Amino acid sequence: MGIARWYAIALVRLRWVIVVLWVVSAVALAMTLPTLGETGGSGRFSGLTTPDNPAIQTEIRSFQEFGFPVLTRVAVVQRDPRGLSLEERFEILTNALDVNLDPPPHLERIEFALPVINDYGLLPTGEDGTTAITYLYFRPTVNFLAQTNVAEDYAEWYAGGPDDHLVGVSGVVPGRIEQLRLLRGHLHTVEIATVALIFLIVALSFRAVGAPLVTMVTVALALNAVLRVGGWLSAKLGFDLPSEMQPVLVALLLGVVTDYSIFFLSGMRERLAAGDDRLDAARHSTAEFAPIVLVAGLTVAAGSLALVVARIEAFRAFGPGMALTILISLLVAITFVPACLSIVGSTTFWPRRPTAAESLVERPALRSRVVEAITRRRGATTVVVAGVAVLLLAAAPVRHLDLGFSVIGSLPEESDANRAADAAARGFMPGILSPAILLVEGTDVTDRRPALDRLQRLIEQRAGVEAVVGPANQPTSFNLGAVLARSGNAARYVVFLGDSPLGSAAINSLDAIHDDLDTMLAEAGIPDAEASFAGDTALARETVTQTEADLVRIILVATALGFLLLVLFLRALVAPLYLMIVNLLAVTATLGLTTFVFQTLGGQGGLTFYVPFAAAVLLVALGADYSIFGVGYIWAEARDRPLVDAIRVAVPRSTRAINVAGITLALSFAVLAVVPLSPFREFAFAMALGILIDVFVVRSFIVPSLVSLVGTASGWPGRSLRGGPGKLAAGGQWTPRPALPAAPASAQASTIVAETSPAQHGARARVENVAASVVALLVLGRALRRRRRPPEGD
């Protein structure tokens, strides 16, 4: 007896034990372990950058050379479009002096306050005397949350009056904290909305109340386990998963648990409709679907683990986190769901008992006619050519994809940080809150003042640069030590860009300057000097560059892993090859359409740098997952019938469950759009669109047509597609196998082989080879004890 059948027998016999164990473990985890959110960081960028980032290293060297920083990421903005009065300007200056000389106790963590008003003539601005920015400097040991809180206290203490024209606190640090607040405030909304949608979809699909209730309990168990175990591992191993990723993991968990539950529910309904009792139906559906679900889940988990080859720490942490989410969801799905179904039986589908008319074995006529049309040679050729052409056309905009490191720009327009940044940009320039620092290093470089002045003028002439403060602005006779190091070996320039500092336009402008630095140094007359950038734009540039390199590498690894698992599952090389090619084409089309919607139509400067990365990795893994569900049915039927006939039987039978699962997963990700941050809208759109393209275009039309066109060569070098004679009734309709006669309880468990269809035998035979090592651990002891005698009935 095969491992899948032993597993089904053991699980049904131990159904009460399994259900009780999951409930007890859920309570124990909730009482003993913190959640993933409770172990999160204090607002830092959580691995989105690395200490060896060149921009960070430049910032450190700049501090070492000059003894104090120029960069700060926190600022208080005051603005009156009619103009700040002289008294108001004087008060802004004296407030900063006061906190520098004798700060109040609650503001002692401010190292230095630097006020800048747009009437000095030092910077070219569009207005005069309307806006004041007070930059606040902190020790590096003060975390982001504390910096923001102290800055808000400063604003309230010194600029909280009705005549102080306070707009708000802004900068990268306050923007980051506001992002986290919005995320945490909307996480429960995402969970509740997703659960409500899942309940509605499952209820409508099965026209029952019990089916969505079983799904909801399974989701609750998996979510509790993932959040608790993930939080424990986060604290134990010392990694800090970025807060942006936590809602993604929740959406992924809710979607995949529902997907896997739908397949078990569909199998259970089919068996009950064929006349099986609840225990026999649970055994059959478990034996058929558990191995397929297992291999599909392992495929997604393996694709997720491809992220460990990334250079950015956050992505390396996200990979294991996503794999852990899939594995826990998989474990709950293949144990709790069948056990629960074997207990509740036909009550799952109340208020009606499944009948043969509702069984998935009986194909809807329209779907059957469509499949028959697209498997004829002319129809198949048309579908493949047209489908590939449409996907290529949709993928075209990806060539113009720009990436940004959006923080303040991702916030809602009414947020304090966004309003303050907009006020600062109107009074000065968009790059005023986060200028770039150019550090020029060389022996006695400060002695070459004319050359340094020429370099400053060259930088000022570059596209995207609004203003530069550097050696040319310092009195010749006296070295203040601000832009010329007292050691004589370094000079620095403060470069103000004309675009949002972390947007794609600013990143592209700085990238162009960086590429020409050697030429500019030579033209200025200091070819032996070395120059490098620091600051948020430089940091974003390095991160985006690393992300682009990581994206190509990780997609290749994820594709290779998906290809390998498909080869093992299908015992073929040809079909996995074209399946992965179509999968990649669908992913590229998704990214192209996302670029068109947000960048071209929406007018955004670019997508948030991690959105295409995360979406592409997930879609590649999920595409392989749906290939296992869809093509696996074709391969199973092709063992006993010609390939074209197998497609016409298998595709209508599997399409309904796959479509429902795909819609559920797509909506799970779409709900992320309720988070009022632009990266989540981008990611929600990309994931929902990508899944729908995969399910309704690729799996429903292109893949069946491709398999039909390639024919039995799809199974090369295996022989699994060389099936027997056709078994279709007249008119191309598949004749379902008749309902099985009831067997004595003592014989039901031992006659599973005789009661299943030949196609089901084929499916299990293939997936057992892949899943044996995992499933055997669950049932090995019981198999050894009972291998010499047939199991007794319940």
Overall description:
Helices cover 62% and strands 7% of the residues. The chain contains 24 helices and ten strands. Helix 14 crosses helix 16 (517-524).
Shape descriptor: elongated
The number of distinct helices, counting runs of at least 4 residues, comes to 24
Strand tally: 10
For the sheet with most strands, the description reads: 4 strands, antiparallel
Write a compact overview of the structure shown.
The chain is α+β, with helices and mostly antiparallel strands. Helix content is 62%, strand content 7%. The strands form three sheets. It has a four-stranded antiparallel sheet. The chain has a four-stranded antiparallel sheet with strand order 7-8-6-9, with helices on both faces.
What key phrases describe this protein's structure?
4-stranded antiparallel sheet; 794 residues; disordered C terminus; alpha+beta; elongated
List the helices and strands and how they pair.
Layout: H1 3-13, H2 15-32, H3 54-66, E1 75-79, H4 86-101, E2 110-117, E3 131-138, H5 144-159, E4 166-170, H6 172-206, H7 210-237, H8 245-273, H9 278-305, H10 313-344, H11 365-375, H12 377-395, E5 403-404, H13 416-427, E6 436-441, H14 449-460, E7 465-469, E8 490-497, H15 504-515, H16 517-524, E9 530-534, H17 536-570, H18 574-601, E10 607-608, H19 610-637, H20 643-670, H21 678-710, H22 745-748, H23 752-755, H24 758-786
Parallel strand pairs: 5-10
Antiparallel strand pairs: 1-3, 1-4, 2-3, 6-8, 6-9, 7-8
